[in-house]
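INTERNAL AUDIT FORM
Audit reference: QA-55
Scope: verify that the stored structure record matches its stored sequence.
Auditor: D.O.
Record contents follow.
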Amino acid sequence: MTDHLSVPRDQQGLELDEFLCLAYPLLNKGFIRRQVRAGRVLLDGEAALPSKRVKSDQVVSADIDEDAADFPKEPLAPTLELTVLFEDDEALVVEKPAGLPVEPERWERGRACLSGALLELALKRSNVIPAAQHQASPGMGFRPRLVHRIDKETSGAVLVAKNIESERRLRSAFEEREVHKVYLALVEGEVPLADGEECIIDRPIGADLKKSGRMCIDEKGGKPALTRMAVEERFAGFTLVRCGPISGRTHQIRVHLASEGFPLAVDKSYGRRDALLLSEIKRKYHSKPGRAEVPLIDRLTLHAWSIDFPTASGGRQHVRAPLPKDFVRTLKQLAKARPPKQR
């Protein structure tokens, strides 16, 4: 069935693919662009490029091929409600819980993801309930656009653009290193930095050819990578550090910290644990008979604490994501059971 969509005045000037992204919120942009190039979308009865800017009252005729081999699956939203930490007309910052992937995972596309949660948020804000992926739903107010990513098992702040202009501006800001992120990382070992002292880890990172999906320090073929590090809180045998990635390599903080001899306290890929137990840090701890000990934390001990980015008006916005309960619980237990040694 062909949908005939009239371009409203408030959407004139949008590129054709952007207009269609609002009309078909459950379809990803790549698929829409391929449909346009295949001639299944006409502008006033004529073929057009995805980048063609639409004018008010023009008619877009779209015959979306729902039987296409690359017809995308709808991204799923988690059952929990997404927490918005900041929002204006251009962007929003949301709090991603640990365990939630940013995009649908390749081998588990039926599981919930952050992009699905963002899409659901935008649909609710617009009071739009699409009947099906291939059916148009005029009235979508904005389409969220992720401009960066964090690991599935990392919690914290994620910056999202609300329109194409904002997306391009923020992506450019990332490339120009005008976006500043700070992570909190609980690491194994006592980092020998003085209070207020900062160091920069400067080691190139490349793919680990011996282990798929892992990265490693690669002095010869790796890409340049820089990470600022300072101590936030000390414990006996552990340290909470602040890390500011200056570059943006895959697993950068995890690889850099491990290369310094201070892997994350929980990191099965670059550390030695997949969970931290109270019995590991508390002397004379005894679990209840017949019950398995519940971990203090069983995911990466890494949290995207804050993000600072330029606004469209020329100012800057700083947003902080509070530590989640599992991280707070772990730090409280460490403070009790592992107070710092006298220096």
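Auditor finding: record pair retrieved intact. Residues 73-176 form a domain with the Pseudouridine synthase fold (CATH 3.30.2350.10).
Action required: none
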